[in-house]
Design a protein that fits this description.
The structure is a single chain. The protein has 339 residues and is of the alpha/beta class. It has 2 domains: 160 residues, Rossmann fold; 149 residues. Helices cover 30% and strands 13% of the residues. It is built from 8 helices and 10 strands. It has a 6-stranded parallel sheet, with helices on both faces. Strands 7-8-9-10 form a 4-stranded parallel sheet, sandwiched between helices. The longest helix has 27 residues.
C-alpha cells in the first residue's frame, strides 16, 4: 500500500513511516513541523497549506488543495495523518481511505486556539463523523485519553493503536554517565526541588539535543506537560528507566497550579469540562501497554527510588516487552489497513 501524509506533528508520522516500511508499505510525507531537525528531515510547506496558515483551514482551503494536487496525489492508495485531524478534510475529494490518528485534542484549530469558533467546530465534527460513517475516514487514537476525548466530544469509535517508535528500537540504554535527566517544560521552579547528585541539571529539552545519545543516561524523570508524549514512547523503546509522578501526585500538582499538564487543554477550547479522572488514561498509567514505569508519590520517595532502582533489570524488562508490543501493534495496523 502506498499512502500520502501531510502533518504538523513530526514524531507520529515518523513512527508510522518506519513501522509501515517494515510491514511492506510506503508512506510519503510533507512534514510542516518546526522540529524536522530531530529526524534530519526536510521541512516542506506550500503556498496553499503551511505551518502559518493551517490554523485557518476551511472548505475553501481544502478545495484549493485538491485542485492543485489532484493529479499528483491520485497515484496513492490512501492518506494517513495525525495532527491536526482537521487535515482529513484535505483528502476527502480523492474518495480514498483516510487514516486519521488523534494524538492531542482533536478539535484544534477549529474548536480551540485563537480562531476556534462554534461554526468551525461544527464543520470539523460534521466532516469527521460523515467521513467515518461512510467508511472513508478510519478513526485511530494513539493513547487512551484521546480515544475517550474524541468519542466524548466528536463521536464515533476511535481504535486505540499505541505509538511504538521503531525508529529508535536499535538503541538500548547503557547508562554509562550514571546520570538522570528531567523531561519537562516546567518554568515554575518545580524541577529544582528534584535536584540531587544523580541528576544532570544542565540538560533541558528546550535546547537542541542528540536523541541518539539519551541512552547514556540511566534514567529520565518525566514531569508531564501533556497526557501523551511521543518522547515517552521513544524512551520506553530505548529501555531508559522512566520515573513518573503517580496519578494522585500529578493531580495534586495540577490543582496547586504547578505547571504540569500545561498542554492538556488548548486555549479557547469549546470542548470544556475535562475530568481529572481521565488523567488515569495517560500512557504511563496503562499497565497493558507501558509496564515497568517507576511511580513516585512525593519528591522524597523519588529520591529514595533513584538510589535503589536496578537499571539493568528495568532496561531488560522494557526492551523485552517492547518487541512483544510491536508485534501486537503490527497486527492491529494490518487489521486496520485490511492488508
Amino acid at each position: 500500500m502506498k499512502l500520502f501524509n501531510v502533518d504538523i506533528h513530526i514524531s507520529i508520522i515518523h513512527d508510522i513511516k518506519t513501522l509501515f516500511k517494515e510491514m511492506g508499505h510506503q508512506v510519503d510525507s510533507w512534514c510542516m513541523s518546526g522540529h524536522t531537525w530531530v529526524n534530519g528531515e526536510e521541512r516542506i510547506e506550500t503556498e496553499i497549506l503551511n505551518s502559518k496558515n493551517f490554523i485557518n483551514i476551511d472548505q475553501t482551503m481544502c478545495d484549493r488543495f485538491y485542485e492543485e494536487y489532484k493529479n499528483l496525489l491520485n497515484e496513492y492508495d490512501g492518506f494517513i495523518h495525525s495532527y491536526p485531524p482537521a487535515f482529513s478534510a484535505l483528502f476527502e475529494r480523492w474518495d480514498k481511505p483516510i487514516y486519521t490518528i488523534a494524538c492531542t485534542r482533536y478539535e484544534f484549530p477549529c474548536g480551540s486556539g485563537p480562531f476556534g469558533s462554534g461554526d468551525r467546530l461544527k464543520w470539523l465534527n460534521d466532516k469527521l463523523i460523515s467521513g467515518n460513517k461512510n467508511g472513508q475516514i478510519k478513526f485511530i487514537a494513539n493513547n487512551l485519553y484521546d480515544k475517550k476525548y474524541c468519542e466524548n466530544y466528536c463521536g464515533g469509535e476511535w481504535k486505540h493503536i499505541p505509538s511504538i517508535c521503531k525508529y529508535v528500537e536499535h538503541i538500548t540504554c547503557n547508562g554509562i554517565n550514571n546520570k538522570i535527566i528531567i523531561w519537562d517544560r516546567n518554568r515554575d521552579g518545580l524541577r529544582e526541588t528534584f535536584y540531587n547528585s544523580k541528576i544532570d541539571t544542565k540538560f533541558n529539552i528546550s535546547q537542541v539535543y542528540d536523541r541518539s545519545r539519551l541512552n547514556e543516561y540511566c534514567g529520565i524523570i518525566h514531569l508531564p506537560y501533556n497526557i501523551s508524549i511521543m518522547s515517552a514512547f521513544e524512551h520506553y523503546a530505548m529501555g531508559i528507566p522512566m520515573f513518573v509522578p503517580s496519578y494522585e501526585l500529578l493531580v495534586k500538582w495540577k490543582k496547586e497550579g504547578k505547571n504540569v499538564l500545561g498542554e492538556l487543554e488548548f486555549p479557547n477550547n469549546l470542548n470544556n469540562n475535562l475530568k481529572d479522572e481521565w488523567i488515569k488514561l495517560a500512557d504511563w498509567y496503562d499497565e497493558e501497554n507501558m509496564p515497568h514505569v517507576i511511580f513516585f508519590d512525593s519528591v522524597e520517595q523519588l529520591h529514595e527510588k533513584i538510589n535503589i532502582f536496578n537499571r539493568l533489570e528495568i532496561t531488560s524488562n522494557m526492551k523485552n516487552f517492547y518487541f512483544k508490543k510491536k508485534n501486537k501493534i503490527k497486527k492491529m495496523w494490518k487489521e486496520t489497513l485490511g492488508c
